[in-house]
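quick one before i forget lol
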Amino acid sequence: MTEREILTKKLSSYQFAVADMRLYLDTHPNDSETIKKMNEYTEKMNALKKTYEEKYGPLTKGGTTGSKWKWINSPWPWESEEVD
């Protein structure tokens, strides 16, 4: 597995965890432990996103790279970096 794939999987895991905690907080808005944990995961998620975008380009149109057109230079999903 490439470093890029590892970063993508970690980022996806944090995104899922944050989304799941947000759903939980919809019904338990005063759960301070979950709020604290969600904030920690959000910080880790943002740090991973920044690391990914510095190495491989933006993940979304509004990425942190500063150039809204840089994403066009990234490999497209069907352009595998590994040769099978």
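fyi The CA atoms of residues 15 and 43 lie 11 Å apart.
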